[in-house]
Recover the amino acids of this structure.
């Protein structure tokens, strides 16, 4: 009897295995192997759009949050939301209480390498696709631009990281960290190879707005050169953007971030956001940074240090909303809910009036585009690069062009005073757009700025909201110029990845 049972089990197993083999031989509906993909224009276009989507994936808020790190890790902003335990790791970044287990570092790393994987597939598969050489060149150029952007985000946050230009799977052997120099070289190589096959902004069709252009690649080349203190190249690439005539400062400052002015005159590269309640699509930034009394979450709140720095500057009223301030008819005395807000202020650049909100009853996703590179930034890159080379006249011309838009008098300074004026202009023009921490550390001024911020808050400030806030007391110049490699990645590498010093 036992033998019969065993025989039946064996026969049943054979039948099941046979059925499984037949089943596995059949294509899975709704899925397609990578090896069979990129066989027509529609598939390639879908893959390229998927790479752009990594800039702001539809995770509701995760990736948008990290774009705020450049503000909260500086003297411009606090974590904001002061509710105990709400996004604790985000607050730990702001306080420089940073460990390799911080979830936001893991999220940033994950999304950037997801984008690199997608662009590597395009760059390596499209050359064999049955489409025209012109289209191949265009799609590969877009993928190289995006890959450069993803590596730019990684190197400025973590330093040297694993470098791969081919698609990798989890079965591949882990990679060691490349040097920062190697990463910058790859960024420059990708951008330079992309430029010849990218269109000018004016050549981009309406449905292509927001996709990579020559100007965007040249602008990021200029910024990459500046990060490496290669001022001659930064000047050269910035000049290429200026001389193209594709961009200007004709939009008034208050319209730069206006939701009804997408891809404006000064926009060089921005994430495109379309609101959809059905698909939960759009930007989360207005919600994440909005007042908790106004349906927002109250994160990344501006500091009084920044407000005082901008005192008398016409851009201030379009940068910060302060408790009790008149904003619009719906908010004659704006409520920032100070009891749940570290500074009694919010970022006005991401603020949407009731009329501009997709849902007027609550903060949800919005169609607000997210600008990653704009012309004023590019002009200040040019000004800084020229100033560092002693080309004061050229530096002043670019600096004063930015100031003229808001009616400020021309700067006539030279030498070190001019360079300092350019740094100050960057802080005011680009305030709360995610640049400050990175600007401070690339110029070697981060330690001094954080020390002054701590002294201001603890000893000099009389602000009723953020005085005595101890943000920055944990700053350590021996480690906080870069973030730690996520511990999860070190574990996956079986110890091959070395951690950044002192973490």
């Amino acid at each position: 009897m036992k033998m019969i049972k065993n025989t039946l089990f064996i026969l049943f197993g054979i039948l099941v295995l046979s059925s499984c083999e037949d089943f596995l031989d059949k294509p899975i509906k709704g899925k397609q192997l990578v090896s069979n993909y990129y066989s027509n224009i529609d598939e390639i276009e879908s893959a390229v759009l998927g790479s752009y989507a990594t800039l702001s994936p539809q995770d509701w808020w995760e990736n948008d949050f990290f774009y705020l790190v450049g503000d909260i890790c500086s003297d411009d902003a606090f974590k904001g939301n002061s509710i105990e335990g709400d996004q604790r790791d985000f607050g730990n970044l702001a306080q420089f209480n940073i460990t390799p287990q911080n979830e936001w570092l893991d999220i940033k790393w994950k999304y950037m390498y997801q984008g690199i994987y997608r662009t590597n597939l395009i760059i390596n598969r499209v050359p064999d696709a049955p489409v025209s050489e012109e289209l191949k060149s265009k799609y590969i150029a877009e993928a190289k631009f995006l890959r450069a952007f993803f590596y730019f985000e990684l190197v400025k946050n973590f330093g040297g990281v694993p470098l791969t230009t081919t698609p990798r799977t989890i079965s591949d052997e882990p990679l060691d960290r490349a040097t920062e120099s190697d990463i910058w070289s790859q960024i420059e190589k990708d951008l330079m190879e992309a430029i010849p096959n990218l269109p000018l902004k004016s050549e981009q069709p309406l449905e292509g707005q927001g996709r990579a252009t020559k100007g965007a690649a040249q602008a990021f080349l200029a910024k990459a050169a500046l990060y490496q203190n290669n001022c001659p190249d930064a000047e050269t690439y910035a000049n290429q953007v200026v001389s193209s005539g594709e961009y200007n400062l004709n939009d008034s400052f208050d319209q730069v971030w206006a939701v009804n002015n997408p891809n404006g005159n000064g926009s060089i590269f921005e994430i495109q956001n379309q609101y959809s309640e059905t698909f939960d699509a759009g930007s989360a930034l207005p919600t994440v940074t909005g007042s908790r009394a106004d349906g927002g979450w109250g994160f990344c709140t501006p500091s009084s240090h920044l407000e005082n720095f901008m005192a008398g500057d016409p851009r201030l009223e379009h940068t910060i909303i302060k408790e009790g301030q008149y904003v619009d008819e719906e908010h004659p005395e704006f409520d920032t809910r100070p009891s749940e807000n570290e500074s009694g202020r919010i970022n006005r650049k991401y603020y949407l009036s009731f009329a501009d909100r997709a849902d007027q009853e609550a903060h949800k996703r919005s169609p607000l585009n997210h600008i990653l590179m704009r012309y004023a930034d590019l002009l200040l890159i040019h000004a800084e690069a020229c100033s560092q080379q002693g080309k004061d006249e050229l530096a002043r011309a670019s600096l004063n062009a930015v100031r003229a838009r808001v009616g400020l008098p021309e700067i006539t300074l030279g030498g070190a005073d001019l360079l300092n004026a350019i740094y100050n202009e960057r802080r005011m023009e680009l305030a709360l757009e995610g640049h400050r921490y990175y600007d401070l550390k690339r110029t070697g001024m981060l330690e001094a700025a954080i020390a002054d911020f701590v002294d201001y808050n603890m000893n000099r400030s009389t602000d009723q909201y953020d005085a005595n806030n101890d943000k920055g007391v944990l700053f350590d110049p021996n480690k906080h110029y870069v973030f730690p490699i996520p511990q999860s990645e070190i574990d996956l590498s079986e110890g091959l990845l070395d951690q950044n010093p002192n973490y």
About this structure: Residues 36-72+84-197+474-503 form a domain with the Serine Threonine Protein Phosphatase 5, Tetratricopeptide repeat fold (CATH 1.25.40.890). The beta strands are 77-78, 267-271, 301-302, 320-322, 345-347, 370-374. The two ends are 66 Å apart (CA to CA). Residues 1-29 have pLDDT under 50 and may be disordered.
